[in-house]
């Protein structure tokens, strides 16, 4: 049998290029806590992403938890059930109540037409997700937030480098939260970041991620330890040199899937927005009723051939034990999200995926194997 093919794989630049940075960290004897690599990496990300204020974190989940703290969010937060569990877990860790709204038909993102009906006197924020790197209906969401005085925090874990109509989508909302996990388009092994809209909010975020320290003897908030190490920051700087190349390779893989699977009966491929500059972070397909196998049967067949496709996102967050008791989790409230969760299958896509391996995946789906 051929080697197993995961759904994603970290992009790793040449190790030889990382050794000098590692030696410099050792020479500096500054391993964490806003060291020189950390400062350089923050500025490099601002330049690359087209934003002014970014705060680095040890991981994306800590960044989500801290973003909610920084904006002093209370009560209820409107969010999506169609995401990775960290989105809702961050709310629970802040003693907030998730209120789920359905996703938009033909999309994997929150349906803005469902938001207003979910707003109550306890609602203080909206937390949408740019799922699979496709931008949310940002202008519509912001209009609603402005009308009701709500904060908007985007879970942008999939959205590194994404532009919509020529502008970074990270400029929308009050904050955007990035993940630099090893499975992402851009990674620092583990890592994350918060993009803030003002210097004042960034300062509060930076206090919160470092135990609340403003200086050696002054603690201004009950913060946590969310800092990114010098090791991760140095690796991020190296990764940034190669990220455009990695995205270009992903685009070619995306194109071959579309060319070969677009005509397969029972396989639906989401159409990419022509107004968006994508990063090709995922390749989702929907397995419809007229495909010869059910979604789970195809999933199992692929695994039997060493293809480790994933059902991202199944089950829905709203169907998990810690969330299904919420009134907003009722399946009748989330028909589109439940439908998509039962059909979704994300195929392997990463820069090191070679064409013969991708062709084998395609052949299995087309029924040639």
From TrEMBL:
Keywords: Aminotransferase, Pyridoxal phosphate, Transferase. InterPro entries: DegT/StrS_aminotransferase, PyrdxlP-dep_Trfase, PyrdxlP-dep_Trfase_major. It comes from the Bacteria. The lineage of its organism: Bacteria, Pseudomonadati, Pseudomonadota, Gammaproteobacteria, Aeromonadales. This is DegT/DnrJ/EryC1/StrS family aminotransferase. Pfam families: DegT_DnrJ_EryC1. It comes from Pseudaeromonas sharmana. GO terms for molecular function: transaminase activity. Belongs to the DegT/DnrJ/EryC1 family.
